[in-house]
Fold these 3 entries.
Entry 1:
Amino acid sequence: MSMKSLNAIISEIRRKEDKVSLETSHLIDEASQMTLYLKELLHTTREYVLKEGFKNEAEEIEFFRNIKPQILGQLIYYNKLFRIETACPVKNGKMYQKFFTSQLQLLKQEFKEDICESHFYRYYRSGRNDRDDEYFTRGKINYKDGLNSYVFEIDHQFSTYYDSKVARIIANELIYSYLITKINPDDSYGSLMQNPDSAKEIFWTDSKNALIELIYALHASGVISHGKIGIRKMTLVFQILFRVPLGDVHHSFHRMKDRAGTRTSFLDHLKLSLEQYMDKEL
């Protein structure tokens, strides 16, 4: 492999996510396969870095600030997803809600203790780059800063310590969104809408399968974010927009593929409705 750009790495991961989501019908299987894939991608990337090195300091900073954290962050996320899903006691009910609520509280506590209460977190969040040569080049760790003990366990040939911090920030944001939708999709509605009151009258009035069919069609056509956004994130947006929980969309999609007759009944209905509307305007 050659040193890939951030966009290339993200696109590669998204393509793998799409392939796995089409081949699996359960989140546990998807999380397991993505964990193995990202683990291998990280290993291959490490081998390349140790063999080829970097052309200059700017390339090293770009790798440890942006590229490696994307791979590691997604790896942490999918591994956590697998652990949570395989430990979930039931499908619905109070125990279900209590389990995911407790997971969310643990995530918040870990984030508060390990990440957000630090000078580096404020540095990274503010978009500063004046200390990038200190944070994102190897061999610059200042042990007098009172760092977490895992600094002594990291691979100093393939880590600056702070790249792991960025990866955890990325992973925690993904895990947070996942847990919120598990507990109640409506809880994340207000945080993504600047004026939620103005959108209360917007809700989905067809079946959930119809909305899932539309989401997959938009994803397959690559018309949203140039096709670089994954099914899971698109589903979250539509759940929030229309305030409707969609459940296991991958399982629903697999059932659609086995439909008798047309497999795109809702899209066919949309096409017919639009054509009829156009004819009225003539």
Entry 2:
Amino acid sequence: MMRSPITAERALMAVALVLLVLIALVLNGTWQSADWLPAEPAHRPAVAAKTPVLAPVALPSLANAWQTPLFSVDRRPDLQQPANQAASSLSGLTLTGVLLNGTVQLAFIKPTTGPALKVRLNGQLPNGWTLRAISPTSATFGLGERTETLTVRRLRLPAPSTSPPLSLSREDLHEPAP
């Protein structure tokens, strides 16, 4: 026995109506409820500390902690140049860039070891050398009567090759000859 199309339409319309009512209820927030925590009392009773209190430690007993590097394999201090001893030359330094502006004149220096440095005009490097002059491609440093100039290293392209360019034959391309 076949149902008439009218009853099938009515059943689908009833399902659609029920779904629309459910969507309206969800959007209205009917089933949402706030789950509030219980109110806390105004004063809390004092709770005894359950963690033990550490005894104070004297600073001299911790001197080894900052004198020996923590992550070094041999745990010896890094070799540092004393502040009063000046470097004899700038051989371990490279001038990586220069910034010349109306008021700002900086030289960017990269030592072979350690972090990069920036030095203002008449500023001093950690090894005692003073930046005396800056040009777009060089920086002149002085230590007492001595002066040394570092220049920006200019990378250049290699000379053009004189060999002929690589060419492939049809046999190399595995193409049949026309």
Entry 3:
Amino acid sequence: MKINTKVWRFVIAGVLLTVLGAWTYTSLMDNKAAVEGRVYERDFSRRTPVQVEKVSKKVLSQSKRLLGTFEPNRELDVKVQAQGEVVREAISEGQSIKQGALIAKIDDDQLRYQLIAAEADLKDAQQSVSRYQNLTDNDAVAKVQLDNAQLRLARAESQVKVLRKQINQTAVTAPFSGVVTEKMFEKGTVVSSGMPLAHLVELSKLKLIVQVPEADLLSFREGQNVTVVTDVHPSAKYEGTISMVGAKGDKAHNFPVHITVANSEEYPLRAGMYGSLQFESDDQTETMVISREALVGSTQNASVYKVNEGVAYKQPIVIGSTSGEELEVISGLQINDQVVVNGQINLSDSTEVVIR
């Protein structure tokens, strides 16, 4: 029986596809095995070597540093008091502007037309009062007519003053010198009274806000001059004045202290940066201390790895004052707790460790 040529072609194609598929599958499996062989897999049967030290209690050096955050001395949303269409925008985001500088101009044509009419009424009322005053002096008219003319004059004067003030309010200006951090309008925007147009931040002066432990609070008083330093400009020292000592502390017995610092053109500061208050403390009380090497993260959001029975647990802590390479621990640890000072880069929470 003779097989059709088309059938042979299908049979040969099927065999070829089967062979190609088998070869492709084998190659993929070999490649997968090679890739998996190169991927690092942590051996959880092995403990991570670390160095530790015990949390101790000691009197810190009298020279202390308290970390805080700079905030603007003043900031506010500049709001419009008029209503209408913005016909001129005079600022852009990030721009430094002086006190009294124009921010936006609102269309005042209709108010000016009203003012023209009101000033005409005022002039007519002034003439009426003058005329009735002469007539009253000569007993030509009753005094009540003069009284009515004077009342009309008072209303006309009031209307002119109101319109002039409303026209002045169509020019929105900066209440103090600062930086425009946000612009909330465009030319052509129709605004209403009370709508914010821009957020203005004063950076010529900044406030450094630090949390002072109860034991050190008596070292600070309003009006006191202090020294402020930053990590951003380590060679610069800023002279600050304490503007506020908090009357209420938090649960950890820390009290907010505000230090006003003049900004520097040579070493400029920005709101949100960290700064440190340097001061000499008379406190001789022992406090819980760890090495700076144990710190994970920043002193504002601090944590350490605490070792307990061969396992390292990530432990959040609260840092107080700092003295050189030593940090005061306000909460989160106990005396004699073991904390990792070397090897943290290889750790995650609940990692088994071996102490070297």
